[in-house]
Design a protein that fits this description.
Layout: H1 24-27, H2 57-77, H3 79-82, H4 85-95, H5 97-101, E1 105-106, H6 117-129, H7 140-159, E2 167-172, H8 175-185, E3 193-196, H9 202-205, H10 207-213, E4 217-220, H11 233-243, H12 252-255, E5 262-267, E6 275-276, H13 279-288, E7 292-296, H14 301-304, E8 315-319, H15 321-324, E9 331-336, H16 337-340, E10 353-358, E11 363-367, H17 386-399, H18 401-421, E12 431-432, E13 440-441, E14 444-449, H19 459-468, E15 471-472, E16 474-476, H20 481-491, H21 505-512, H22 514-521, E17 526-530, H23 537-552, H24 555-568
Parallel strand pairs: 1-15, 3-4, 3-5, 5-7, 7-8
Antiparallel strand pairs: 2-9, 6-13, 8-9, 10-11, 12-14, 14-17, 16-17
């Protein structure tokens, strides 16, 4: 059963607990009947609904009736969702009321979560009532900051269900900075290797530059066949085997534990497709071959949590604004102490060393033990914000990670299924969404929007159109070229999977004539819809209803918008 809400945040998170519909007073840091004095100015921002989202009373009543009927069918299909619907409805009203004040349907939670107002208020109250100083001293404000820092680190370990004797928390500016800590210090060599998943974020792929600079092999593995977004796990194992030298006749299971300078990097959940990969299978396969594993948890953690008691990679990166919206500018690397001890820092900075002996003729330093977090945090930590991380994780614990998982996965599965059924008047599909052969759906889905004649609709057309209708979605390739090219290749065979330079015009232009590549593919991209804690069924229904009434029901107008776009199109400078 789920733990009582008055338990301290120092207890581990239980991400496998039963669904519990929290009472209103258990969800917020504040009295929901009291106004937000410090944040009331937000409600004064003028925001005028667009015509496409406002309609006559009769048509509005018809839409409400359709929505109610659709929700009844939805709840029959996803009965677990119904158990906590009142709780999430309460959260939408008390913690995220600005969404409705702006007449907005927000579907960009993978890009950034929205901050609960009580979290902002509680942190502001804490800062008003407590002086925090640089934690490198022994005076009162410094000691208070140090205590908050340690409490926040413990809260992160609890959230990740991580054993503090095995893992430590290293503060970084964001998840990308956490990845750089690993990439810049990993002991790559000519006998080493870096293997990456086909749907890695650019910040993960950037580690390849560190590997190449040290002569390590760099290689990726593939998606499965037939346009699936699931991994080809056999190919993953074949790639690792081809780069793993072990004694003749030694099976991978017998090779387990003998570490090599080889790193496998995968996302636990794709930030594009929303698919949750089989991380235990991946980590176990890598460890059997003596590989280290870096898991990108930035997309998974917000709606599914992290459980390092079951899956135990060497390195995990987390971004907190993606979990609870506030604060930005702080993330962390959760790392095994034993793995940190094998890294090689390329430089030192204030706070990362025990002492420096500096003279004109020589310069020497004594480092911290590399298994200690102090060795990896350059300069002063963000001591004003670590307390907000602790408070944010406490808020997530109040809501319940399992509750969030069921709420978001149910909604996104319904949205994805409905999108796949949408058709133009000639029977042509509205979009392409790849299927998954393995893994569960997370909290997002991306689609390639297609015109009535089956051509790719420029993602900027959809970006402008949705924004004008007060839908906040994300378009492009989301710093994830692998998934983007997989989906584009479904509609354009010029984007060959093998990416061979010889005889491939697309790859040749990318390397040698990027402007030509931009003119060919710059308008093509995906539309991502992601859900979060504040998302309601009404939000999801309104998006589908809007597509049907404002796009599918008006094909000539839509074609005219596409034509107008190409009349002014210029190749973009960046594709991310």
């Amino acid at each position: 059963m789920a733990r009582a809400l008055n338990q301290e945040a120092s207890q581990p998170f239980n991400i496998d607990c039963d669904l519990v519909d929290r009472k209103p007073e258990e969800l917020s840091f504040r009295d929901p009947e009291q106004p937000f004095s410090a944040l009331e100015h937000i409600s004064n921002v003028a925001f005028t609904p667009t015509p496409s989202r406002t309609s006559s009373s009769s048509s509005s009543n018809d839409e409400d009736h359709e929505c109610a009927k659709a929700q009844e069918r939805f709840e029959n299909q996803y009965p677990q969702w119904s158990k906590t619907k009142d709780m999430f409805k309460h959260l939408r009203k008390t913690e995220f009321s600005q969404i409705d004040k702006e007449h907005l349907s927000y579907f960009d939670y993978t890009g950034g979560a929205l901050a609960p107002r009580s979290l902002i208020e509680k942190h502001l109250e804490f800062l008003r009532g407590n002086l925090l100083g640089n934690p490198h001293s022994a005076h009162g404000p410094s000691l208070r900051a140090s205590n908050e820092d340690e409490a926040a680190r413990q809260a992160v370990l609890n959230f990740c269900n991580a054993d503090p004797s095995v893992y430590t928390v290293i503060w970084t500016a964001n998840a990308s900075a956490a990845l750089k800590v690993v990439g810049s210090s990993y002991p790559f060599s000519k006998k080493g290797a870096f293997v990456y998943a086909p749907d890695c974020h650019n910040s993960v792929l950037g580690i390849s530059e560190f590997a190449k600079s040290k002569g390590a092999a760099v290689k990726g593995f593939k998606f499965g066949k037939n346009w699936t977004i699931s991994y080809d796990y056999e190919d993953l194992e074949d790639v690792m085997d081809s780069l793993t030298k072990r004694p003749m006749g030694c099976m991978p299971s017998l090779f387990s534990g003998k570490k090599s300078n080889k790193l496998l990097a995968v996302p636990a959940q794709s930030n594009v497709s929303g698919l949750k990969h089989c991380t235990k299978r991946i980590v176990d396969a890598a460890h059997q071959r003596g590989w280290d594993v870096l898991l990108d948890m930035a997309a998974l953690a917000p709606t599914s949590g992290v459980n390092l008691s079951i899956v135990q990679p060497e390195f995990v990166c987390v971004s907190f604004y993606k979990i609870f919206g506030y604060p930005t500018g702080i993330g962390c690397l959760v790392a095994k102490k034993s793995a940190l001890a094998r890294l090689q820092r390329p430089w030192f900075a204030g706070g990362t060393i025990r002492a420096v002996l500096s003279q004109p003729e020589f310069l020497h330093h004594q480092s911290y033990d590399p298994s200690m977090h102090q060795c990896w945090e350059d300069g002063t930590i963000n001591f004003q914000q670590t307390s907000a991380v602790r408070m944010g994780l406490e808020w997530i614990q109040r809501v319940g990670v399992n509750n969030i998982r069921v709420h978001t996965s149910s909604l996104i599965q319904w949205i994805a299924a409905e999108l796949k059924e949408l058709r133009w008047d000639n029977g042509a599909p509205f979009c392409f969404i790849p299927e998954a052969e393995s893994g569960d759906q997370g909290s997002s889905v991306s689609m390639l929007v297609l015109s009535r004649n089956g051509k790719i609709v420029p993602h900027k057309v959809m970006e402008a159109k949705t924004a004008a209708a007060n839908f906040a979605v994300r378009t492009g390739c989301f710093c994830n070229p692998g998934t983007g090219f997989l989906m584009l290749n479904w509609a354009d065979q010029n984007l060959a999977h093998e990416n061979k330079v010889d005889g491939n015009k697309t790859v040749h232009n990318f390397i040698h004539d990027f402007h030509a590549f931009g003119e060919e593919y710059g308008a093509k991209g995906l539309v991502r819809v992601s859900v979060g804690i504040p998302t309601t069924f009404a939000d999801a229904f309104q998006l589908l209803h809007w597509i049907q009434t404002e796009i599918l029901a008006k094909p000539q107008e839509f074609e005219a918008e596409i034509k107008s776009f190409f009349g002014t199109f210029e190749a973009p400078y960046s594709f991310c």
